[in-house]
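[Q] Does anyone have a clean structure-token version of this?
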Amino acid sequence: MAQTQTATKPSDFNRAFRDAKKEVSGVADTFSEAAQDVYEQARDSAADVVGSANAAARKTAGSFERAVRNTIETQPYIAAAVALAIGWMLGRMHRPL
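[A] Here you go.
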């Protein structure tokens, strides 16, 4: 009779081990799917941010160009003086004291 109890215990253990293995496998699959979904959402969000930043940079560059062009056309002497001052300062930065 001792052998019968010993024989059933390993099969119970094996069954419990298989059940636990199936549950862990299911949890791992669920986690993998969730991680994939989060990755795809992050990738889409990053693409949206890059697109918005690109559009804003183009708009800002266009606005800056129009402002500089307007200033040069309406106040050419002041624009030339500012350009001369900027050039002089950049030249001084590369010259030792």
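[Q] Thanks! Anything notable?
[A] The chain has a mean pLDDT of 83.
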